[in-house]
Each structure stands twice: as structure tokens, then as C-alpha cells.
Amino acid sequence: MTDDAELVIAGGGLNGMLLAVACAGAGLSTIVIDRQDPAAMTGDRFDGRTSAIAYGSRLVFDGIGLWPAIEGEAESIREIRVADDGSPLFLHYDHRELAPGTTTNIPLGYIVENRVLRRALFDQAATFPSLRLFAPRAVASMDASEGGATVSLADGSRLRTRLVAAADGQNSPLRRAAGIRTVEWRYSQTGIVTTVAHQRPHRGVAVEHFLPAGPFAILPMTGNRSSIVWTEQADLAPRLLALPDAEFAAELRARFGDFLGEVAPVGPRWSYPLALMQAERYVARRLALVGEAAHVIHPIAGQGLNIGIRDIAALAEIIIDARRLGLDIGDPPLLERYERWRRADALLLAAVTDGLNRLFSNTIPPVKLARDFGLAAVNRLPPLKRLLMQHAMGVLGDRPRLARGQPL
Ligand SMILES: Cc1cc2nc3c(=O)[nH]c(=O)nc-3n(C[C@H](O)[C@H](O)[C@H](O)COP(=O)(O)OP(=O)(O)OC[C@H]3O[C@@H](n4cnc5c(N)ncnc54)[C@H](O)[C@@H]3O)c2cc1C
């Protein structure tokens, strides 16, 4: 029996589409299936988030030729200021400290609206004859054997393939069906997301204020705009979200401060429940989990999508290299290599983001004092600061070719 495609991807979110574009761009016949309508997914009202794209993730976009479609709508992050509520001590990351004494002008990362990323991915996907998008259609189940895999859709149709990638998000139906267990919990926090316009330019400075309910992040967007990720207690968030415009603006200003002059919310308010999830395995027979199907972390460090992008860079390299050697891309040793490559990075970031969230949401005075001295101490240690910056930029460790900006 012939395959309908070499790779079938369940889920056309940012991670699923990125994997599709990377693999189809290297000649692999690929099908992406998403239960939502692409017209809705690329519309303005679909996802209010912006993503902090680490410099290493920008290199992945470079490697698959997608960056030119994003660059014009991406704002560079040149500095990050981290401050604890009411404390004079702070931590300041500056891109100029990455390579002191040189004229290097590499930013720490970029802020890009998710809708910009989504549209760039869908547009690029439409240019590859080897890539087909089945949407809106839902994946119902999959069966795998030594000889191949069959994906069954909710409408009764079936697709034969070598490998299935589950990019079907946090509640991944394919992960559950494969019996892969998870470690997970919900934070008693909600992420409120909105955009503000301000009087003065942000000059590429991202700010993270740690407030008792959680971090309040101000992320520079193009123009005199910033994206707000306001972490609030889950029981209080619905009341804030339901406030009339003027009262919501007043609550926001009380947290934002006046360092950028007059501030006004523009555009809708969005909310996202926050959770941590780690799948115990990232692979099963002819199945690889990517992005939030494999791991979900707190948005405190803006790294969730970046870990997914690194999953894609690793899996795409393994698949394409195997195919060039004439191997079966669903072979267990290849999938095990993918899991080994990706697990430590995702676990480390889950632990770091969870630890930071707990540490900074703690109002016990000695804990607050200790963490403020910790911030100030890191601030005075340039080599440690540089290492932390490079880690957040995703430019350390055993990086796949795409994450070094090279093509597959
Ligand atoms: C408030 C907030 C701020 C964030 N900020 C950042 C940031 O600054 N930087 C960063 O790196 N990350 C950030 N993140 C994380 C990032 O947004 C996510 O990691 C990322 O969007 C996950 O993408 P995904 O493609 O893995 O999953 P999803 O976006 O959940 O996509 C899954 C897709 O699968 C489809 N699907 C599900 N089941 C089926 C099925 N049975 N059949 C067919 N299709 C199916 C769904 O329709 C969906 O399109 C943030 C997260 C939050 C909550």
C-alpha cells in the first residue's frame, strides 16, 4: 500500500505549521490536519498574544527562509529590565554586553505578534506542492505497526504515512491515545494579554515587574506600542477582564507606571489559563510529540514557543537526514534520538520557570529580600549575566543546523 504522505502532522498551530514548512521545504511529502478553519486561525481575533522570539529561534526562521516575511513586523529586544515590586534592586540585561568591546548589534530577541507568525507560515506553506493542509478536519486516532502508520480522521477518511507528529497542543488527543502519561498542574494564575499605546518610545526595552500576583511583562512592539502579559490570580482575573474600559485602563496604569508617559489600552483583552505539563515520553511507535503536546511551561520567561521551535529544528533535521540516507523516517532509533536531544532543554526550562514563578510570587519578607539581593548580585557579575542572556537567546548547547541559521 502506498503512503498518502511521508509525514502527517496533527495540529496546524505555530509548531505544527513550522514543522510542516521546514520538512516540505526540504522536499518531504507532508500533510497537516487542523480541526480549525485556516481563515479563522489567521484572522485578527484568533490569538491576541505576541511571542518573545529568542535570537536562536530567529535563526531557525532564517534557516527555512521565513524570516524576511516576519522581519518587517518584528521589534528587536535590546534590553530587559527585571524589577521586584517596590525594590530598588534590579537586574538589567543589555544586548551590548553580549560581546563587550565589539560593534556587534545582535538583539536579545524579538517581539512578534502571533498572527504575523501564523500568516507567514500559512503563506509559505501554500507555496510548497509537497505540502497539503486538511482543515477544518479533525484527527480521531492513529494505528502504528512496523510497516507504517494510519491516521483516522473524524470524517472517516484514513491516511497512510511513515511518521505522525502530534502538534495538537496541551491536551493532545494523540498523546493521550498513545497512553503517554504526563506530569502536570494548573497555576492559580491567569495570563491577561492586551496591547497598549504609549506616549514615549520604548527603545526596544522589555520590562518585567514582579508583582505579588505574578509577573507583569511589558514587551516592545512596533511603533509606540507594547504587549502586556499580566499574570493575575485566577479568581480575580475574570473581574478585571469584565471591567469597563476606563476602570481596566486605571488598573493597568497602576501596574505599568508612567515611565513611558501616557498609557492607553488599545485592542481587545485576552486571557489564558496557565499550566505546567511535561509528557513522560516524547515518542511512541511512529509518533513524535512536538511543542505543547510535549511540554507546557509558565510564560514568565517567554520561552514556551521557543522550546517548541527547538523541537522542530531537531526533529526536522533527524527526519530529513534519515530520508536522504533512504531510511524509514519512523524508525524507533531515530525517534529515540529526538527524545534524547530535546528532553533536557524542556525539563530545565520547566524547572526554571516554575521556580521563578514560585520565588517571585512569595511575599514572605526574608524570601523577598534574598531574591532582590540575588537579582542585584547577578547584575554585578557580567560573565554570569552573559551566560544567562545566551541561554535565554537559545544559542548554547548542541544546536540543530536550523538553530544555527543553516538550511536543512
Ligand atoms: C499568556 C501566554 C504568553 C506566551 N508568551 C510566549 C512568549 O513570549 N514566547 C514564547 O516562546 N512562548 C510564549 N507562550 C507559549 C506559546 O504561545 C505556546 O507554546 C505556543 O503557542 C504553542 O503552540 P502549539 O502549536 O504547540 O500548540 P497550539 O497553539 O495549542 O496548537 C495546537 C493545534 O492543534 C489543533 N488540534 C488539536 N487537536 C486536534 C485534532 N484532534 N485534530 C486536528 N487538529 C487538532 C488545534 O486546533 C490547534 O490549532 C505564551 C503562552 C501564554 C499562555
Structural features, described:
Helix 1 (14-25) packs parallel to helix 5. This protein has an eight-stranded mixed sheet. The protein is 34% helix and 30% strand. The two termini are 29 Å apart. A hairpin with a 5-residue loop joins strand 5 (79-84) and strand 6 (90-94). The chain has twelve helices and 20 strands. The model has no long low-confidence stretch (mean pLDDT 93). It has helices spanning 14-25, 38-41, 55-63, 67-71, 114-125, 173-177, 237-241, 245-256, 304-324, 332-360, 365-379, 382-392, and strands spanning 7-10, 30-33, 50-54, 75-77, 79-84, 90-94, 109-113, 131-134, 139-145, 148-153, 158-161, 163-166, 182-198, 205-211, 214-221, 225-233, 263-279, 283-284, 287-289, 295-296. The chain is of the alpha+beta class. The site of flavin-adenine dinucleotide has 34 residues, from helix 1, strand 3, strand 13 and helix 9. Residues 10-16, 33-36, 49, 51-52, 138-139, 167-170, 173, 191, 193, 229, 272, 291-292, 299, 302-306, 308 line the site of flavin-adenine dinucleotide.
Q: How many DSSP H or I helices?
A: 12
Mean pLDDT: 93
Structural class: alpha+beta
Number of strands: 20
Strand order of the biggest β-sheet? 6-5-14-15-16-13-17-20
- Gross morphology: globular
Biggest β-sheet: count, sense, barrel? 8 strands, mixed
Query: Gap between N and C termini, in Å?
Result: 29 Å
Which band does the percent of strand residues land in?
Answer: 25-35%
By oligomeric state, this entry counts as single chain
| Cofactors and ligands | flavin-adenine dinucleotide
List low-confidence stretches. none
Helix coverage percent: 25-40%
From the alpha carbons, calculate the radius of gyration and give it in angstroms.
21 Å
